[in-house]
Amino acid sequence: MPSANTLYSSPDLYDLFSTGVPGDTGYFARLAAGAGRVLELACGTGRTLIPMARAGAKVTGIELAPDMFKACRDKVAAAGLERKVTLHRGDMRRFALKQTFPLVVIPYRAFQHLLDVRDQRACLECCREHLTRQGRLVINLFDPNLNILAANLTHHGSAARNVGSVKTPDGGRITALATRVPCPEEQYVVEDWVFEKFDRQGNSQWRKSRVFSLRYFFRYEMEHLFELCGLRVEKLEGGFQGQPYRHGGEQVWTVRR
């Protein structure tokens, strides 16, 4: 299974350009502090995991990609959080930790890298089995914007969009451009990201490309999927400040057994 982080060629690029959704780290940190113990799937380099540990929770993280796993382990050590964090290299579709958690989280689109319904169900069923009786699973997805999808279909894909530009310590910069092609028959989008490093004079030093796919989910499709997997919806929010759900924004699901 492709990790949620394989679009990046290195953990460094992941940290530069995977900045999450506004407010998400604080949201998960508050949940973790209240729960005391938490399991995070596809924890990457620890962007969400470390704030949860700093909030006082004991955090278990699962990450499949070896480079991301190592980067997360190094960051945890540098932060002095080894006693608060347990890391496992593993697959979010199939894991057995022989313990349950009052909180399981899948932040920042990670679940959307599971393109196949069997994989989606396998992941959710594993989550259910690792929840305490009153435990909660929290998942963040983007809500499909039909206007954007229709425009991409009409033009056979999106024009290159500027994802960001970040200065580097040597005075240069790294830029990221992305294009998107929807596949409505299979209900996913294919994204092609191109990273390019420029020196301080503006000369290109290297260019790297990554292609990945993201499955998009409609609101009632997710409700049905949760029900099939023995999970009950507690609430659906439209963001990390408690906003109501709105089409084309965020889906922040809280579900329980």
Can you summarize this structure?
The chain contains seven helices and eleven strands. It has 257 residues and is an alpha/beta fold. The chain folds into two domains: 174 residues, Rossmann fold; 70 residues.
Low-confidence stretches: 1-8
CATH class of the largest domain: Alpha Beta
Fraction of residues in helices? 25-40%
| Beta-strand residue percentage | 25-35%
Spell out the key features of this protein:
257 residues, alpha/beta, 2 domains, 11 strands, 27% helix, globular, disordered N terminus
SSE blueprint and pairings:
Layout: H1 11-17, H2 24-35, E1 37-41, H3 49-54, E2 58-63, H4 66-78, E3 85-89, E4 101-106, H5 117-129, E5 131-142, H6 146-154, E6 161-167, E7 173-183, E8 188-198, E9 204-215, H7 219-228, E10 232-237, E11 250-256
Parallel strand pairs: 1-2, 1-4, 2-3, 4-5
Antiparallel strand pairs: 5-11, 6-7, 7-8, 8-9, 10-11
Describe this protein's structure:
There is one protein chain. By secondary structure, this protein is α/β, with parallel strands linked by helices. It has 2 domains: 11-144 and 217-256, Vaccinia Virus protein VP39 (Rossmann fold, 3-Layer(aba) Sandwich); 146-215. 27% of the residues lie in helices and 34% in strands. It contains 7 helices and 11 strands. A 7-stranded mixed β-sheet has the order 3-2-1-4-5-11-10, with helices on both faces. A 4-stranded antiparallel β-sheet has the order 6-7-8-9. β4, α5 (117-129) and β5 (131-142) form a beta-alpha-beta unit. The radius of gyration is 18 Å and the shape is globular. Residues 1-8 have low confidence and may be disordered.
